[in-house]
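Escalated from tier 1: flavin-adenine dinucleotide holo job.
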Amino acid sequence: MDVKVNILRYNPETDRKGHWEEYILKADPDERILDLLHKVKWFDDGSLAFRRSCAHGVCGSDAMVVNGENMLACQVLVKEVSTPIKIEPIRGLPVIKDLVVNMDSFFDSYKKVMPYLINDDEPGERERLQSPEDRDRFEDTTKCILCAACTTSCPVFWTADTYVGPAAIVNAHRFVFDSRDNASKQRLEILKDVDGAFRCRTAFNCTSACPRGIQVTKAIEDVKRETLTIN
Amino acid sequence: MKVVKHSFDGVIVGAGGAGLRAAIEAAPHMKLAVITKLYPTRSHTGAAQGGMSAALANVEEDNWNWHAFDTVKGSDYLADQPAVDILCKEAIDSVVELEHWGLPFSRLESGKIAQRRFGGHTVREGEAPAFRACYAADRTGHMILQTLYQKCVSMGVTFFDEFQVLDIKIDDGVCKGVIAYEIATGDIHIFEARAVTFATGGFGKIYKVSSNAHSLTGDGPGILYQKGIPLEDMEFYQFHPTGIYRLGILLSEAARGEGGILRNKDGERFMERYAPSIKDLAPRDMVSRAIATEISEGNGAGPNNDFVYLDLTHLGAETIKQKLPDITDFVRTYVKIEPINEPIPVQPTAHYAMGGIPTDVNARVLSDATGTVLPGVYSAGESACVSVHGANRLGTNSLLDIVVFGKRAGQSMVDYVSSTKPMPLSDNAAEDLTNKIENLMEKNHNPEFSVPRIREELQDSMEENAKIFRSEDSLEKQTKILSNLRDRYQNVTISDKGKVFNTELLEAIELEYLLDMSDTTVASALHRKESRGAHSRVDHVERDDKNWLKHSFAFKNGDSVKLEYKDVELGNYEPKERKY
Ligand SMILES: Cc1cc2nc3c(=O)[nH]c(=O)nc-3n(C[C@H](O)[C@H](O)[C@H](O)COP(=O)(O)OP(=O)(O)OC[C@H]3O[C@@H](n4cnc5c(N)ncnc54)[C@H](O)[C@@H]3O)c2cc1C
Ligand code: SF4
Ligand code: FES
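Tier 2 regenerated the structure:
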């Protein structure tokens, strides 16, 4: 079938601002949106820029706005979206070219929450023990692939880019609720800050945007509640 | 072109599991940079699903000798046994270390790390399938990659994200550094460094149907091959039995480890005929051949009889949800089937390179078949061939390989850097590369010679002629096709002449590596007149230990490939007939 695709193009070397280009592509309903982008790039305009690697929703490279919603281009099939298909870069981060945005501030926020296990106790020669129940408490947030779909769907982030954003809070949650970690208090102090978890206005955009099905808003609520337990 | 110069002691190319593990070892002892064409967390290690083996004995009796036996037998006796001993012995501490760094393994009721069964892993040298694979649901690789990256963040390791290395500088046989291209700007960066580790992953993109990411194009092996370094055991490429039909997306062997069954169009559990003792949990080469045989004998399902079924319907919704959540989601997303109720159409998918850059057990790169070390150059992970996987890798042994030998690469860098002085690299070191890029930029674009066209023909023809079953005819045919594609590649052109995020330019350069990987794969396969592990010749069906118990080394020889051989290092296990 023929599919009409509109892509928001921007080349900093030739354009002053972005403009829409239309492409009519032969596509199979079972193909991924990513396959459509490849058709444009490989057989029409080689200069189209987008990130991608794994092509099956596990690396987090290709978050973009498709018909107004954040998703991974490799995780959505042509038959699941209405036509014409409108594709834009994720919002709130500077565009480098076409569908590629600058991720620096996103990763800086991630690093702010100390996203690593902190425990100075001597662990011994074998693994630390953890019950399946304790392991379950942070299962959901271990799934994050740092795709930025959540953070760039958040209306608070669009207006205040100093807000650490949902993805950073998800990654803090992953350690705050890990029974093996000893630094929850430090992380929660950081998230108590003006640009921390309390900026969240529970819009739930992040939860619907997350391609890993993480209950992002719930994780933020868990962190907020936990923050109240420290003094 | 703008050229920027940096000075480091060591550089690691690649930030998958192997590169990150090397970085953790090396960073405290030198000025180190990790250069990666993808953000580290997007490396394909993150796609690994099923597990990482170590004889922890958390579920049942186990010891690393049994693990070593299985690995050697799985390799069809081509693995170097001293290296396998290191792999299996160091496995235990490696898993524990990852746990200490925070890796969220799934847990047993006892609180210990959970372990599951996997193909080819047995207790007491073949008695029964072993619970040896440590896992975190079916996203073990994701957790390893995240944990190693988190550790690097905590240590303040220096990363150059979205920088693609395109050249290495070796003067008089001594390493001086690498040249990289900054994807966001098109600037060239000279990295002076006397120790360089390549951890660039595999090259599944030489085939059409593959479980590998678009980025897996064999860059490390390609860069070194073009400098005259040989590539080892390239004829051994693993096809994983269960890729989603047509898409190639992997459904982990963990599905069969948890009890999943392969069935042909009549619903028959055909593996009972091919591997009576361990059936569906036979090693991958055997299962993939069994599927290909079923299909060629007309027992495949579907209108074209070209797939078989992976049946999980008897496992129950709870097991599927707890233990196989991601892979069953892939099936729902891409095939729109509910695996709890319906069997899944699968076919073998190009998955893992047993071959690659030859190294010793300390990850030092070898420049010939006699074991000469190339000073300052290291490789680990899927880009390297130690060889611990021989002719066929067992599932879960690669995640193990990347941490065990990644660590050793880091240690070797430290040893080398602490015993040598900085070696200056001249300011015009990038000249070869800038000429090559300018050449591509200046040529007028001609769609006849576009990257996607040449690449598509390459992938289609490799799929047809150099896949699971090979013959002299199919390989001779492929040699001609490759030589023709190589000629066309000399005239390759691109349409994007910009500096910013010019991924068309990078795809053009990657295509040359894909051609190199294909040339060496086909030439090595053509010369090896026997069948062993993943290399099955229909015209030489037997394994021939008398003549072929050796590793092949493929050298670049102008536009053709020259082969040399090196004997396998044996150990405790004498080659025997391989039956399961
Ligand atoms: C779907 C799937 C499932 C798997 N499941 C398992 C499993 O359950 N158990 C198991 O043991 N094994 C499994 N494997 C195999 C295993 O995951 C891989 O072999 C292993 O992760 C490879 O790791 P690596 O560090 O060598 O490379 P990768 O993780 O692929 O990393 C390569 C790195 O190199 C960088 N790079 C490449 N070229 C350049 C360049 N030119 N310049 C700069 N950087 C560059 C990339 O950016 C990336 O950071 C699986 C593989 C796949 C595909
Ligand atoms: S929480 Fe979900 S949407 Fe946000 S970065 Fe992680 S995976 Fe992406
Ligand atoms: S390409 Fe990896 S998530 Fe889409």
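The beta strands of chain A are 2-9, 19-26, 63-66, 69-72, 85-88, 95-97, 100-101.
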